[in-house]
Design a protein that fits this description.
It is built from five helices and ten strands, in the order βββββαααβββββαα. The longest helix has 16 residues, at 57-72. By secondary structure, the chain is α+β, with helices and mostly antiparallel strands. Helix 1 (57-72) packs antiparallel against helix 4.
């Protein structure tokens, strides 16, 4: 997997994870975090899956923690050894919002940028040492791009506000993942 980081106007990096002709982009627009998936050759798509496995080191570790935190109800990503966090996690898992978004170890997120009747959907599953992100585009009265599927996690006005927090944490943790391609270029210039 190639990790590509591009500086953005928010003093952070937009992240592109590139693998098997697919690009998973995680980027910031204002206070919102967006995930977008597409093919490098811009094929028209209505669904696409992106896999991250344990061979992908640091990227896998970040996504694995993200997945486990949501499944366990640790939406704030806090220290699970604290009694107060354990109680918060138990409460979180009992909410109707959590029960609607997490079923049978599958996380289902609806894109905040479209009405409930035709949102793009992201399903996150884990099988053995592989995390699979499956993006589905649902057509409706709102036009959507032909070549990518985007999931927008809004900071304000979100239907699933608190579930945006793990996505913000994921984005923040991916900021520290090394951009190997650019690191190699930088090393080569120094030599």
């Amino acid at each position: 997997m190639e990790v590509k980081k591009t500086s953005n106007e928010y003093n952070s990096f937009d992240i592109d994870l590139i693998q098997d002709e697919k690009i998973l982009s995680i980027y910031q627009t204002g206070a919102d975090i967006n995930l977008s998936c597409k093919y490098e050759d811009y094929r028209k798509i209505s669904n696409i899956s992106f896999s991250i496995n344990s061979n992908q080191g640091e990227v896998y570790s970040v996504f694995d923690k993200f997945y486990k935190d949501i499944i366990n109800g640790n939406i704030m990503g806090e220290d699970e050894n604290l009694q107060s966090v354990q109680e918060q996690m138990q409460w979180e898992k009992s909410t109707s919002l959590y029960e609607a978004l997490v079923q049978n170890s599958v996380i289902t997120m609806l894109c905040d940028a479209y009405p409930v009747k035709c949102p793009n959907v992201l399903r996150i599953t884990k099988k053995n040492d592989e995390i699979i992100l499956t993006f589905d585009k649902f057509d409706g009265e709102f036009p959507k791009p032909l070549y990518c599927i985007t999931i927008n996690m809004r900071q304000s006005g979100s239907r699933i506000y608190e579930f945006c927090i793990p996505f913000k944490t994921l984005f923040k943790q991916l900021q520290t993942v090394e951009d190997k391609k650019n690191a190699i270029k930088s090393l080569t210039k120094k030599l």
